[in-house]
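#dry-run=false #mode=assembly
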Amino acid sequence: MLEQIFTGQFFAYFGAAIAFLVAGLGSSKGVGLAGQTGAGVLSEDPSKFGSVMLLEALPSTQAIYGFVIAFLIIGKINDAMVLQEGLKLFAAGLPMGVVGLVSAIYQGKVSASGIQLISKHPESVGSAITLALMVEMFAILALIVSILMIG
Amino acid sequence: MARLNVNPTRMVLTGLKKRLKTARRGHKLLKDKRDELMKKFLDIVRENKRLREEVERKVSIVHSRFVMARALMNAEVLEEALMSPKVEVNLKASTKNIMSVDVPVLEYTTEGGGEGDIYPYGFANTTGELDEAIATLSELVPELLKLAEMEKSAQLLADEIEKTRRRVNALEYVLIPNLEETIKYIVMKLDENERSNLTRLMKVKDMVLKETHEFHY
Amino acid sequence: MIKIKQDDYAYAVGLIRAKEIKLLDGDRLNRMIEAQGAAEAFKVLAEAEYGYGNTENFHSFEQVLAEEMKKTYDLLAEISPVPEVVDAFKKKHDYFNIKVLLKAEFSGQEPPQILVDTGVFGVEQIKRIIRERDYSELTPIMMQAIADTYDAFSRMRDPQAVDLIIDKASYDQFVNDLNEFDSPFLHELARIIIDITNINMYIRARSLNKSWDFIGKLLLKGGEISEEFYFAGFDKPVEAFVDDLRRTKYGDTVKRGWELYTAKKNISGLEKLLDDFLMSYIRRSKLITMGVEPFIAYLFAKETEIRNVRIIMTGKINGLNDDLIRERLRLGYV
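#status=ok
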């Protein structure tokens, strides 16, 4: 019975689900946080919409990376998959999922802070974005690792 | 100078002379009183000036402290702090006699509030500047009362001096000269009478002598 | 324990950061001080959108400041994810109203028009509560304080007792409320406020030669410095007490304030330094991007700003010179 459920295919799907689900959760949280702060700023000064939106959108990349990984994993799945192969794909989903989650949340926080920064100094929108992009790097590394693992 | 409208008789003359004497004595007394009042008045005015300057200096200190307290506290908080007083002041007014002038004397007693315990508010939400304003103001109350007392005394004395001066002047420039002139007039009139009497007598004597002489012849 | 989740403050902090730009900074306060006369100084307030636009006549500046305070509380109440936080800071205005109403009752006067509408309870509501003696809506500390006040006043007939009891209860309530939240920032804030109030009151009372009996009634609970510390200092001259404080974080501040006091015989320097000490603690929240800290900091920023504006306007109207005004200005948040 159990062997019928825990097939290679199951683990591969599970990996894809984690890659997108967890990274997506992180992005939602991050974008949500930045969005709330942004709404606060905009309620006082609607003219800053452009830069606020840019910063708010930054944490959503993790979900996109998660989606890419999930897509790649699903592309690898076939009916005659052995358990080992499935587990490998499952493992490949993990870096993107976990790193995506954490980096998206923290990027959200940095973005929120960046929005607070530009509310006071509109000219420093460049530095605010740079600061938030620093966090992006880890998500990109995770993306690469996951892609390499999928092979 | 107007002469009094009297009958130039000897009796009136005696009466007038008596009046003149009284007037002269009254004049001297009133002059003395005026001088004494002046002296007292000048004393009070000098003291008053000193006290007023002192009070004004302190009032301006109190004012500036209140302004500070006011600047550091909400209008509401300040008003609440001073809403009900801790110390009650009872004022008793009586009078004192200076040279037959009744001047006021103010006595005051405080009720409630022990030694230096004059602050009717809590300390947590008030500023220390208010303490100083209240303390200075409370030191000021006796001096303010003293000042009120003195200013009123000075005013009453000034009135009295004015009245006395008018009386002295009336005596000096009106009554006494009038009396003197009337007396002079009566004396003159009486002398005149005397002289005309004498002339008449001499004339009568002449006539009588003439008659006797003619009788002889 | 009321939970405070940092992330819940995302919207509030964003809004507050945008609001902070409008706080009067040193430049604008300077412009007010250097303005020719009160009317011109007042214009700066109109530019800063103070009050509800009723900024025509500078003689009504007190009203404008009251409106600005009300505006600030309303804003914070509106955006606060945890309403209790704002209420904790509003309750001192309820205690103020209670104090006014009780004093009015004791002295048989009509309640004057000085009740403030920034409390948790509305003006009419609190009037009714005190008039009908129906305290069921009040907090337990309020109820106890009112009962104590009636008791003390009937025995001593001393209006100061009203202030002492209600003020103390007000701070007790504040400490209690802030300790309810799981925020070390708020706990520390309560301790600092109690300590600086205590130190100020203690030195004031000592310089007025008050007895320990009286000082004991003044001192508030909940600070870092214990009542025993003050009691131990009571036998010694105030200098020694100031010296003993050097081991605490208030040491330097109090020492400088005491030097000012001995030099000028005026306690306002010390008061200013203690206020500034609190503000430098509050200023740390500038570095915090998420949480209750910037939120509360804005309230203090506004309170201090309004205080500074009042100092300047009163000074201008009464023709004080600029140095005298500057000397008393509190450290601002921006």
